[in-house]
Design a protein that fits this description.
By secondary structure, the chain is an all-alpha fold. The protein contains 21 helices and no strands. It has a domain of 117 residues: Serine Threonine Protein Phosphatase 5, Tetratricopeptide repeat, CATH 1.25.40.10. The chain is elongated, with a radius of gyration of 31 Å. The C terminus is likely disordered.
Length: 407
C-alpha cells in the first residue's frame, strides 16, 4: 500500500504539471490568436464600413508586440474613413514596412493621397501596389481616378479597362470612359461605353445623367431615334426636354420642338442648349428678331460660347444690323481661337501626364474662358504634380471661392 500510495502521488504530480504546461500553451496560443482575430475582424469591419467595430478592433491591437504593422494599418484605415487623410498617410507608411500588409497599406495610402489632392504621389504609391498585385482592383480604380484628374486620360482609360475586367458587374469604369470619349468627340466609342455601363448596372444613382450623355452622343452620331429611346424613362429636366426637342425637329415637327424648348427654358431660363436651339429654330423660321432676342440673352449669360456669337451675328445680319453682326463675328472668332487653344492643350496633357506647366496653362485658358471650376481643377492638378509651383498656387488663390451651399 505504501508503494502504491507513493506511485499514486507521483502520478498525480505528473498530471498536475502536465495540465499546467498544457494550460500555459493554450493561453499562449489564445493570446497569439486573439490579436490575429482582432485584425481579421477589423479588416472585415473596414470592408463593411462599420467604423465603430473598426475602432474597437484597432484599439485592441494597440501596443501588441508583433502586430504593430497591422495596428498601423487598421488605425490608418479608421483615420482615412473619418476624413483625416493626412494623418492616415503616416500610419500607412509604417504599415507598408511589413511585406504581409504592404499591398493593402500602399492601396489605402494611395487613396488617402488622392483625396489630399496629391495626385502625383498617389500615382507613384498605387503603381507600387499594382506591381505587387496586378489584380488589385481598388489600386487600379484609384490610379485611374488620379490620372483622370490630372488630364492623363489615356492612362486613365488603361486602368479603367482593367477595373472593368476585374469587376464585371461594376458600371462605373465604362461610365467614366464614356465621358472621356464624349469629351474627346469619339461618339461611337462613347455610345458603346455608356451602353455597357447601363448593361452592367441598369439603375445607378446617376442613371439619368448617363442617359442624357448617351443621348447627346447619339445625337452627335445622327442616331435620333436611339437618342429619344435613351431618355424615354427620364424626368422632364431641361437637358432631357432639349434632347426631345432635337428629335422632334429631326422628325419635321418644329412647333412641337419649340413647345418642348419653352418648357425647358421655363425650368431654367439660362440653359444654353435650349437657348441655342431655340434661336436657331426662329432663324430657320425667318423670324430673325425673335432669334436675336433669345441669342442676345444667351450671349449675355454665356459670353464665351462662340456658337452663340455666330448665330447672333446671323440674326443681326438678317436684320440689317451690319455693325453689330461684324462685332459678333469678331467675338466669335476670338472665342473660337481660345477654345481651340484649350482643346489643343487638353490633348497635349493627355499624352504628358507629368507636365505641371501644361496644366497651369490649361488653368489660365479656362480662366480666360470664364470657367472658374475648370480653372481650379487644372491649377490643383499642376500643384499636385509640382507642390512648389508658386505661380499656380497664387492663381488658384486668386480665383473666387466656391460658394457655400445655400449661399
Amino acid at each position: 500500500m505504501h508503494l502504491l500510495n507513493r506511485s499514486g502521488l507521483r502520478l498525480a504530480g505528473i498530471v498536475t504539471v502536465s495540465l499546467a504546461i498544457l494550460g500555459g500553451l493554450t493561453l499562449m496560443l489564445y493570446r497569439q490568436r486573439q490579436p490575429a482575430a482582432h485584425f481579421a475582424a477589423g479588416w472585415q469591419a473596414l470592408q463593411a464600413n462599420d467604423l465603430q467595430s473598426l475602432r474597437t478592433h484597432a484599439a485592441a491591437l494597440k501596443n501588441v508586440v508583433g502586430f504593430e504593422p497591422r495596428a498601423h494599418l487598421l488605425k490608418g484605415a479608421l483615420l482615412l474613413r473619418t476624413g483625416l487623410f493626412a494623418e492616415s498617410v503616416g500610419e500607412f507608411t509604417e504599415a507598408a514596412n511589413d511585406p504581409a500588409v504592404r499591398r493593402d497599406a500602399l492601396t489605402l495610402g494611395g487613396e488617402a493621397l488622392y483625396k489630399l489632392g496629391r495626385f502625383g504621389d498617389a500615382e507613384m504609391i498605387l503603381e507600387k501596389a499594382i506591381a505587387l498585385d496586378p489584380v488589385n482592383v481598388e489600386a487600379q480604380r484609384w490610379l485611374a481616378a488620379a490620372y483622370y484628374d490630372t488630364g492623363a486620360v489615356f492612362n486613365a482609360i488603361e486602368h479603367l479597362k482593367k477595373v472593368a475586367e476585374l469587376a464585371p458587374r461594376d458600371g462605373r469604369p465604362h461610365r467614366l470612359m464614356g465621358l472621356i470619349r464624349k469629351d474627346g468627340e469619339q461618339f461611337k466609342l462613347a455610345i458603346a461605353d455608356y451602353r455597357e455601363s447601363l448593361s452592367r448596372d441598369p439603375h445607378p444613382a446617376d442613371e439619368e445623367q448617363i442617359r442624357v450623355e448617351l443621348a447627346e452622343s447619339l445625337l452627335r452620331d445622327l442616331q435620333h431615334a436611339a437618342a429619344r429611346d435613351a431618355v424615354a424613362t427620364c424626368n422632364d429636366s431641361p437637358p432631357v426636354l432639349t434632347i426631345r426637342a432635337q428629335c422632334q425637329l429631326k422628325d419635321g415637327q418644329p412647333e412641337a420642338a419649340r413647345a418642348l424648348l419653352e418648357q425647358a427654358l421655363k425650368a431654367d431660363s439660362d440653359f444654353l442648349p435650349a437657348l441655342l436651339l431655340g434661336g436657331t429654330l426662329w432663324l430657320d423660321a425667318g423670324q430673325a428678331d425673335r432669334a436675336a432676342q433669345i441669342l442676345k440673352h444667351a450671349a449675355a449669360r454665356h459670353p464665351h460660347d462662340f456658337t452663340v456669337r455666330q448665330k447672333l451675328a446671323q440674326a443681326y445680319h438678317r436684320l440689317g444690323k451690319k455693325e453689330l453682326a461684324e462685332q459678333e463675328v469678331a467675338r466669335a472668332e476670338a472665342e473660337k481661337k481660345l477654345r481651340r487653344e484649350f482643346t489643343d492643350l487638353h490633348e497635349q496633357a493627355a499624352t504628358n501626364p507629368r507636365d505641371a506647366a501644361l496644366r497651369f496653362r490649361l488653368g489660365q485658358t479656362a480662366s480666360a474662358l470664364d470657367e472658374p471650376e475648370l480653372a481650379r481643377m487644372w491649377f490643383r492638378a499642376a500643384l499636385a504634380l509640382d507642390p512648389k509651383f508658386d505661380t499656380a498656387r497664387q492663381a488658384l488663390n486668386e480665383l473666387s471661392p466656391i460658394p457655400a451651399p445655400g449661399g
